[in-house]
Specification:
about 190 residues, TIM Barrel, globular, ThiamineP_synth_TenI, ThiamineP_synth_sf
């Protein structure tokens, strides 16, 4: 089972400095390995159309849909309370403490650092505490990961990767920002 690793981009069209598909395409060029489509406030038809548009720019099998409906794909990332849908190949779950898993393949732990996207959300776990909470569960660090130093700290603590939203979505040059963050992971873009 291949799980999300490296730099995982989370979407938010409202924060995107340019049209979302353009930002995602730039991040992929910069070395983002996976994309999680959030934007859960969209109606079903619009969200499914966005998933289709993103599949055109994201490498095959590397788009994960936040929520229990995979929108025509086979990978989902669930909240703490979402049911696991049948027939999906990859299941992730958002956690803010010790993961209580059943069929999930990985978790995101957040917030690792204070985050501008969700100010006041926390307290920040820090990489070492997140690693202790995850134990043997593959985990992605999420929240406030906006610099190469923070990427390196999370990976050194044992994260399989980092999930980034604001640093890339808000960037004037999302490709360059992604490339800098990916370089800290030691993965060629």
């Amino acid at each position: 089972m291949v799980i999300p690793s490296g730099l995982v981009l989370l979407t938010d069209r409202r924060l995107a400095a340019r049209p979302l598909v353009e930002v995602v395409a730039a991040a992929i060029r910069g070395g983002a390995a996976w994309v999680v489509l959030r934007d859960k406030d969209l109606g079903y038809a619009h969200r499914r159309a966005l998933a289709t548009a993103l599949r055109a720019v994201v490498p095959p099998g590397r788009l994960v849909i936040a929520g229990p409906d995979p929108l025509g794909g086979d990978a989902v990332h669930l909240s703490a309370t979402d049911p696991v849908p049948p027939g999906v190949a990859l299941v992730g779950r958002s956690c803010h403490g010790t993961p209580q898993l059943s069929t999930e393949d990985y978790v995101t732990l957040s917030p690792i650092y204070p985050t501008a996207t969700k100010p006041g959300y926390g307290p920040a776990l820090g990489p070492a505490r997140a690693a202790a909470l995850a134990g043997s569960v593959p985990w992605l660090a999420l929240g406030g990961i906006d610099s190469p130093a923070r990427v390196a700290e999370c990976l050194a603590a044992g994260a399989a990767g980092v999930a980034v939203l604001g640093a890339v979505m808000r960037a004037a040059d999302p490709e360059a920002v992604t490339r800098d963050l990916v370089a800290a992971a030691g993965v060629p873009a």
